[in-house]
Amino acid sequence: MADGSxxxxxxxxxxxxxxxxxxxxxxxxxxxxxxSAGLLILGVIPILYGALHAESRINLAELGVIAxxxxxxxxxxxxxxxxxxSVRHLRLKCTILLVALAALxxxxxxxxxxxxxxxxxxxxxxxxGAMVAVSIELIARSRHAERLGGFFLAMQAxxxxxxxxxxxxxxxxxxxxxxxxxxxxxxSLVSIGVALLVPTEYGEMPKQSAxxxxxxxxxxxxxxxxxxxxxxxxxxxxxxxxxxxxxxGIDAQTVGVLVSVGLFVQVAAxxxxxxxxxxxxxxxxxxxCGVVGLIxxxxxxxxxxxxxxCVAVLAISFVWMFIVPFMIGMTLAADSTxxxxxxxxxxxxxxxAFGPLAATAFVEGENASAVPLFGIAMTVLSLALFGLFLIAxxxxxxx
Length: 399
What we know:
Number of strands: 0
CATH architecture of the largest domain: Up-down Bundle
Number of helices: 15
Strand content: under 5%
CATH topology of the largest domain: Growth Hormone, Chain: A
Structural class: mainly alpha
Radius of gyration: 21 Å
CATH superfamily of the largest domain: MFS general substrate transporter like domains
CATH class of the largest domain: Mainly Alpha
Low-confidence stretches: 1-13
Number of domains: 2
């Protein structure tokens, strides 16, 4: 096959980079972009949903519900699509998904009630999750899955940052929420050209004969729960940065600038992780990020100065993306079939959706000072589960 993808009737091409198939560099980059395009909404939810609220099309409660539903369905759909859907005819499937997402983004212009907006974004979440699965299926087939995962994170973080900049400065001020969603739809339509570069198929994952691995083992469940809890911490604290800053006298504009800087720190973190994963064991990477997260959350909860607040926020931005390739490494250690690896985005997104919801139980009125304590608790629990995971892996090795 011209694009280097595996064909149905031929033996898998074995090389130092891929377990099955041999996609070209352009084909791999195109597949990673499809998932990145599906995740663009996560970087611009505050801008686009904020614009819907400013135009009185949804209230704050509805904003929270719609954002949570879309995020949850991205996670659920990414898991279902990765585990159940065929990896053949990928160019056609990617094109259909991109057209569907563009249509749903454009449909916001005619969604005249909060319920219609909710239905539209719920359907969009299902489509976006399927797009994410295209990237994750590719990553799972790489012999350097952690490294490829780092590049995937860098691509999506950079794209989200640039899109957020354009929407916030030009599109939304001039055209409102409808213009912002239309711009998002245009990105999907333009991405159809990229979809034509995606490998036509990936090839089936190698079967593990007499394997005791799989998603439904203690190791895999512990790994996924650890990821879920860590992302509950990160996104809960991130969501309440503005009130946390206001508590110590930091204005909203400063926090906004800090968040923008944090997005580009995430790009640097993703690239750093992609480079270091070959030299740093996943256990050290996860433990290091956990310790940094604990310290950052403790700083935010202890009436920090402006400098310490900035350091803590940027530290959380860094570990947010830096830890993910090592989490992929953890799932590979848990499950040689690599099926657990396919569920990493779902665990992250579900944690990201439930974290802010759970943290609201610790918010009293406009006082969010207890949220860092919630973050500390989630991080401690995630590290405790990681400790149990390491014990389970060691026992399997001894067996």
